[in-house]
## 1
Amino acid sequence: MSSNNFLPMPDNKGFFGEYGGQQLPPELIAIMDDINNAYLEIKDTDAFKNELADLMTHFVGRPSPIYHAKNLSEKCGGAQIYFKREDLNHTGAHKINHCLGEALLAKHMGKTKVLAETGAGQHGVALATACSLVGIKCEIHMGEVDVEKEHPNVIRMKILGADLIPVSRGTRTLKDAVDSAFEAYLQDPVNSLYAIGSVVGPHPFPMMVRDFQSIVGIEAREQFMEMEDVLPDYLVACVGGGSNAMGLFTAFLDDDNVQMIGVEPSGKGLETPDHAATMTKGSPGVIHGFSCYLLQNSEGEPLPVYSIASGLDYPGVGPQHCYLKDIKRVQYETATDKECMDAFMDLSRYEGIIPALESAHAVAHAMKLAATLDKDKHILVNLSGRGDKDIDFVAKRLNLE
C-alpha cells in the first residue's frame, strides 16, 4: 500500500512548493482562514465522515466501477486501456464528489448561500444538486459562450433551483465566470460560501477539493489490484484546473512504478493562441488569489484561452499540479481538438460510452500511448464525465443532424 507521503501537502500557508498560497488582501485572507479552520474542524469528525460516506454510497452511487475497454484496446493494438467510470456518478461527472463536501461544509458554517463558477456546467449541476439536497440557496455564474454551448446543463441547473448568472464580460467563458462569481461572493462573504469547482483558488480550496476528490484514486487503487493483481503502469487524466486528475493521482503518488500523465487542451495547435495548455506553454504567475503556471502576457495578465471542452479553458492550473510537474512526478502532455473529437467518436462507437469532451482529451492520449506499448501494460484513464451535455455541439460540428 502507498503511504501517501504527499498527502500532507500543502504547508500551513497553503503552498505546494512555491505554488498556491493566499495572494489576497488581508481582509480576504481572514475569510479564507475561517473556511480553512471550519474545514479542519469537521473533516475528521465521525459525524461529517459518516454523513459524506452515506451520501457517496446511497446518493452518488459509489464506488464507481473500473471497466476494461477491450475493443478500444484491440483497435489501438498495444497496451490494455481501463476506465475509472466517474461518468456513472449521479449528475454525470466527478464534480459531485467535492460539491457534496462543500455543501455540507457550508451547512456546518451556517451559510445561507453557495456561489460558484462553471465552464462545461458539470460543477454547476453538481453543486446545484448538492445545495438542493442540503437546503441551501445556490448561485452559478457561467460565461455566455458556455451557456449557449452547454444548454442541457443550463436547463438542469435551473430545474434544480439554481440562480444562473450569464457572464458577458471578456471572452465570456470560464475565467470570466470565476471573476464574476468571486466578485459576487465578496459582496456578502459572511452569509455565503464560494464553492470553487477545481483544485485552484486561494488556500484552502486546492487542498480541500483534492481531499474530497481523492476517493477516486483510493477506490481505483484497490479495485485495480483486485482485478489484475498489479497496479496500473500508467494513469491518464485531463487537466484544466485539475480536480479529476488530482483525484486519481493522489493515492498513487508514492508508487514510483506508476507513471502519471495529465493531458491539457492544445486546441487548434500550440503554435496558435487558441489553446489552454497552461503547463506546456505557461510560466509562474498569479491568478484568482494563488500562484501557479499561467498563460499570461508580458504584464502578467491572464491571456485569453480556448478549448473545444468548456471545462478546460482556464489560463491557470492547480498549484499541486505545478509542483508535481517541477519535481517530474507527473508528465503533462496535450491533445488537439481533432484528437479529442476522434477519441470521442472512437470511444462511443467501439465501447458504447459517450464521454465528456474534457475526458476525451485523456482518452485521446491514452490511445496514442497504448499503441506504443506492449499488450501486457495497463493504462487507467479517469473517465471524468459523460458526454450528454456535448452531443448537440458535436452533432453540429460533425454534421450528424
## 2
Amino acid sequence: MTDLSRRTLLAGTAGATAGALSGALPAVLSATPAAAQAPSQAAAPAAGQVPSAYRYKVGDVIVTAISDGMRTFPMPDGFVRNAPKAEVNAALSEAFLPADQLSIPFTVLLLDIGDRRVLVDTGNGPAKGPVGLLQGTLASLGVDPASIDQVVISHFHGDHINGLVTAEGTPAFPKAQVMVPEAEWAFWMDDGEMSRAPDGLKGGFQNVRRVFKPFEGKVERYAWDKELAPGLTSVGTPGHTPGHTSFQLASGNDALFIQSDVTNIPALFVRHPDWQVTFDMDGDKAAAARRKVYDRLSADKMKVAGYHFPFPGAAYLAKEGDGFRYVPVLWQPVL
C-alpha cells in the first residue's frame, strides 16, 4: 500500500498545481498590462469580519444568534479560583487554545416567536474595540430596534445589560417591554447591599443604576418558573449572581436551554464543572447549579445556547468522566 503522508500529499499537490500553472502563467502575464499585474490595494481583505449572525429553528421559533464581539486578554492569576494555573493551561492546551490567554465571546439571542420579537440580553452596549457589535449587526439584518417587543435580561453584569441604552443614555429598544429577574433587581437595587459590597463590586451597583435610570417605573420584574413569552420560561440558576436566570424555550417537540452564564469558557468549565470562575459571586452555588443543569441537559440530549460559548453558541453536552464534553451543533446553511 502506498504511504500517503500529509507531507507527501502536500508536496504532490503543490507540484501538480505548479505544473499546471507553469505553461499558462507566462502567456497570461504577457497579455496583461504591467499596471494590472501589481496586486491591488483595493483587493486587500478587510481587517474585521462581516457581521456575525446565524439563524436556526427550535420548533416554529426562529432563533438568531448575534455576535456582540469577543474580548481576548492575558489570563490573570485566579481566573479559576479553585484550580492551579498550570491545570488551567493544560485544559486550554487540550482544547487547542493558547496558554496564558483567554478569549471570551458574547452572543445575544433574538427570538421570533410568532409575531413577537424577543431579545435575550443586550450585549456590551456602545463600546470601543472588539465588542458592542449588536446594533450594527441588527442593522445589517434589517432589524429595526423599534421592532423589538420584549427585552428579557438574565442578570445584571454589564456585558448583558449595557446594550439597553445608547451612547446618549436613551433606550436602545424604544418600544420594548424590559423584563428582569426579581431576585436580581432586589439585590442590585438594595442600597444596603451596595454599602456592604467590597470596593471592586461597587462599580457594578453604580452601573446597574445608570443603565436602568431611563426605565424608572417601566421595568417588569419576573419570578422564576414563569412563562415570559410563548414557550419561553425562566429558570433560576443562581450563583453566578444572586438572581442569575436561564431560560427554556419550547416549541412543539423541540426545546433549547438558554443557559446565560451558567458556564464561561466551555473548554474550562464544561470540561471541569466544579471549577469556579472569578466572575461567579457565589462559586459553590454556581458550581452546584452548573452540575444540576448539565446532568439534565446531557441526559435529555437537549440543545443549549451559551452566552460565552464559541459563536454561534449552540451545542450539546455529553457526560464524560467527571465532567462533560462540548459538542457543537452542525452548521445548517439553509434555515
## 3
Amino acid sequence: MMKYDLYGIKDIVYDSRKAALNTAFVCLVGAKSDGHKFAQMAYDKGTRLFFAQKDLALPEDAKVILCEDTRIALAELSRQFFDYPDKKLKIIGITGTKGKTTTSNIIAQILNKSGKNAAVIGTNGIIINGVRTPTVNTTPESYELYRSFNDMVNAGCDHCIMEVSSQAVKLNRIHGIEFDVGVFTNLSPDHIGEGEHADYNEYRTCKAGLFARSKVSVINCDDDDSSYMIEAASGNVITYSVKDGDCCADDIKHWSEPGVLGVKFNCRYNDVITELKIATPGIYSVYNALCAYTVCLQCGVTSAQIIKYLPMTRVKGRFEIVDALPDSTVIIDYAHNGLSLESVLKTIKEYEPKRLIVLFGSVGERTQLRRRELAEVAREYADFVIATSDNPGNEDPDKIIDEICSYLGDTPYIRFADRVEAVEYAVTNALPGDVILLAGKGHEDYQLIGNEKVPFSEYDIVINTAQKIRAIV
C-alpha cells in the first residue's frame, strides 16, 4: 500500500459538510454524486489538502494529489491515519445473500462468552463491548471501518466479525484488510439493478473478492456457487455442509423449550461427533450453527465451549419470538427477499400452525424484482397476507403495495400503507393457534419515509398492542 505524507492533518473527510481546517478531503465518485463538485465547498471551510481523480480548479494554496481511484486512496489514507488497527485484530469477514447478520452475531456471542472480546460490524450496526452504533451501510465506507477498528483496539477488543457486502468489495471499502477468516454462506440473485450490480455474474464476482484476501476460507459447499468461491480462495479452505463437507450435520431434529423453537443435530468435524443445539428452527439454522462451530474453532474456542454457548445465542430481529399473546405466536424476522422469506415460512410450516399470517412490504426506489418474488412466496405458503410498507423512501407506498398485491392471486389479504396500523391489525385479530410473521424490518428501529428516518419499533408496537388487548379483556 502507498504511504502518504499526511502533512499534519487531524482528520480525513469525504463529505464537504464535515470539512474544516487541517482536514484532508477525498473526492469520491458515487452512483448519484461526484465529490469533485464539492471540492470548492471543502476549500471554503478551510481544507487545503485534496485527493482527486482529476484536476481541481482551486486556489494555488490548495495541494491536490491525483489518484487513479480515490476510494482506494481513502482506504489507504484511513489505514495509515489510524495506525493500521486491522493488524491488531483477528478479523472474520462474512459474505453471502442471507445469513450474514445471524451468523456474525452468533460467532461474536460465542467468542465473548468464551473469554474473548469480539466486536461486530454489520446490518445491526457496530457493536463494541455491548454498545451499538447504527451504520448507514452493511459494510461502512473504508474510513468508518478503520476508525471503528481503532475504536475496537482502544476498547480492548481482540476480534472483529464483520459482514462484507458485495458493494463493499465493488467500491473498495475493504481495500487493505487482510481477513483471518472469510466465510461464504450462500448466494442467490439480489442487489441487481440500477445503482447496484449490472448482473448476477458481477454480483457473484464481488462476493468472491473476499476469499482472495482471506487466510482461511470457510465455505458452504452445499451452495451451487461454492466451487466459484473455492476457486477464488487464496488460503486454506474448510467446507461445511448438511451433506458431506469437512464439517457436516446429520440426525437433524426439532428442539423446543418454552420460548424456543430450535433444532439439534450431530456435528462431525475431524472425525469427532458432537451434538449441537441452536435456539432457532429450520435447515438454515443448521447451516448457521455449522458455520459458527467451524469459525469459532479457528479462533481458538474449544468444542466444549461452543456446545455450551451456542444454545444461548440470540439475534435481534432474526426469528425473534415476541412473548406477547397467550394463544398465538408473533415472530419478527428480517426476511426481505424471496429466498429468505421462503426459508422462514417453510420452517414455520413444519410446526403446523392453525393459520400462518405474514405481514410484509418491499423497499421503495430499488430492488423492484423483490416485490414479485416476495408476493409469490407468500401466496404459496401463507394463509393470509397483510401487505404494507417497508422503507418506501420517495416512492408512493400504495403503488408498491399495488404491485405486491397483483401477484398474490387468490390468497386472502388486507393492505395498510401505514405499517403501524398493519402491525396493530395483525396482533388485534390473532386467533388461537396462529403464527404471525412480521417480515422485512427485523432489528431496524426506523421507517424510511421520504428522506426521513421515522422512529419505528415493531417489537414495541406488538407489546403495546397486546397490553391494550389484555386491558380491554
